[in-house]
Structures are given as structure tokens and as C-alpha cells.
Amino acid sequence: MQIAVVGAGIVGASIAYHLARRGARVHLFDEGPTPAAGVTGKAFGWVNLINGQPTTNYGNYRIRREAIGEYQRLKAALPEALRHARSGSLCWRATVAETEALVREHQAAGARVELVDAKTIAWWEPELREVPQCAAFSPDDLALDPTHVTQTFLNAAIDYGARVHFDQKIVALETSGGRITGVRTAEQAVSADVVVLATGTMVDTLMSPLGLAIGVESSPAVLLQFSCDRPFLSRILCGPDMELRQRPDHSLLSAAGYRGGSEENGPAAIGHRVLEVMRRKLALPHGVELQRAVVGYRPIFADGFPRLGFLPGADGIFVAVAHPGIILAPLLGRLAMEEIIEGQRSTLVPGFSAGAFPGN
Questions:
Q1: DSSP symbol at 22
Q2: Which helix (DSSP H) or strand (DSSP E) does residue 295 occupy?
Q3: Which of 171, 185, 100 is nearest to 134 (CA)?
Q4: 316: which DSSP letter?
């Protein structure tokens, strides 16, 4: 079976790896010059369950739980992917009551999370100036480099025979007799039994010439990187006005919402405001400054679920679009392989029903 995967972010790379590992002839295309050139490279890189919603959206929460378990399998299969990952997060809300409620909610759903007191927090993170009275500690959370994980997937896929094409924008989906038969770039046409679209917010644009759309929306967020010359934090910290972690090169990463529309709400302005919060709440090392502020446009759907599956009425198209992609990518890669190669459809992730999108 020959498969064209469009999109070399973490989801597309995971799918390419799982398919190639099972013997499929995979061609992976991306219009960017490198892996993770889109939203993947602008992600905070936090694999967690604590930001899920077990009471209001248990179906999505269940997917997250399965996805975190999939990372343990990934660690065994591709240990290089998580070589630089750090574990553990501390999260707290504006009040003690809210933090305690957060812990109870996740514990009731079976998550491995515990309430830790201010003394423990200060011992673990001595650079905190404003120590919360308590926090939710999630030991299984991971802080990882999404670009490194994506590259590891691609390297493994190539080892299994996949061919990767960068700087190759898909200009058309090839059709014959009402069936998708491959992809065309400005330089070449490649036939395929299945075309996998893992292009995030661009998936509807790519399908629009066929009169198809799945209703993907864009949720922008700002990734901020700050210089730092020494180890400073041990865990991910997430409070009401700060989300922060440290990379292996000691630089600090933070994430923030993005509205745009004015200079005072631009990425750099947000970065400088976050830095002021960090200086107030942490005993920052000397010389910490904003290095990078970029916007990533995350693909979301109104019901909060990812989308994975063959598209009815468009024979040969398989769609894989998800947020949070960093958390879900290893799981979606395996589930996509099982459906495409083995014909085994998972009920864990919503697919597509006839009439569920315009143009059908």
C-alpha cells in the first residue's frame, strides 16, 4: 500500500512512522523547509492530564489518558524521542479551595495527582518568591521538545523506508472516477492508495477545491522563550498568571493566549508583560530577557475533540487533525495505522459521519 501523508508536524510524522513501520510505502510532504515548521514548532511541549476536563468533557479526557499511556510505549519503542524530556508539574489556582477542588476532580477520574503543601513546593522549587499554599502535583506529566520528537519520528520512518519531501507545497489532490488517487506538487505527482491530511488549520483550504470542509477553527497562542544561563526550575509551573518550564539548554519557555489586533497585544508586548510577572514571582537569574515570541495557530473543533478517520464521500482521504497535537500525536499515529492498514476503527476518537461536513 502506498500512502501520501501531507504535513510534517508531530501528528503527520507520527502517522508516517507508524505506517512505515508496518510496511506501507510512505511519502511525506510538507511545504516548510524542516520538520515541525508550523504550529508544532511553536508549542509549549507539555504532555499533561491536569488541563483536561474530566467532569465536563470526559470523552476528551479519556483520549488524553490513553495518549499519556501511549507515551510510555513510545519511550520503549523510540527512547531517543524522550531523551531530553523532564517529568512532573505543579499547578495551582487563585484560591486554596479551587486548587483542592482541582485535585479532587482529577483523583475521582483516576488520575495520578496529589495535593502538596507550601513547604513541599518551596523545597522543590526554591526560586519561587510567591509560594502558593498548595498545588496539584502530577508526576507523570512530561515537558518535551516537540521539534525533537517530530524529527525522531521522521528519522525512524525513513529507516523503515519512508521518503520525505520538504519545500513541497501540495497544489492539488489528484482524483479519478470520484476517488482521490494521489497528490500533486509544483514539481511532481505521486500516486497513493490513501492520502492522509495532517495539515492542521489548513486542512479545509486543501480540500476546498473538492467542495469539502470539516469545520476546523484556529485558536492562536503565543510561545515565549527567555534567555537563562543556569538550571533554575525542576518542574513545569502553572499558576493563574504564569505557565513556565525550563529547557535542557536552560532557556525558559512560557505560553500565553493571543488576541492580536494592536501593538500592545502583540507577541513581543505579551512577552515583556510575562517577564514582569516572572520577575515578581521568581528569583530570576541575572540576564533573563525575552528572546523569541511567536504565534502558533492551533486547530480546534467546536466540540473539543480531535478528528481522525476516512472522510465519507471522498474515497481515499484520511484526515488527522488534533489539538493538543503534542499530547495526542503518538496515539493518533497508532490509531491511524490500525485503521488504514488493518481496517480496525477505534471508537476512542470521533471520525466522520455522512452529512457531517459541507459538500457531502
A1: T
A2: strand 290-300
A3: 100
A4: T
Q: What is the DSSP string of 3-21?
A: EEEE--SHHHHHHHHHHHH
Structural domain span for residue 258: 86-142+219-298
Looking at the fold, whether 165 and 293 belong to one and the same domain comes out as: no
**Over the range 156-174, which residues count as b (16 or more CB within 10 Å of their CB) and which as e?**
bbbebebebbeebebeebb
What angle (nearest 5°) sits at the alpha carbon of residue 248, between those of residues 228 and 271? 45
pTM attached to this predicted model: 0.95
Identify whether residues 196 and 177 lie together within a single domain. Answer: yes
All three cell numbers of 269, joined, read 508586548
Pairing of strands 170-176, 179-185: antiparallel
Co-location of 122 and 234 in the same domain: yes
Mean pLDDT, the chain, integer: 93
Looking at 298, 319, 350, the residue that finishes a domain is 298
CATH of residue 245: 3.30.9.10
pLDDT at 355 over 80: no
Q: Do 160 and 270 share a domain, yes or no?
A: no
pLDDT at 304 over 80: yes
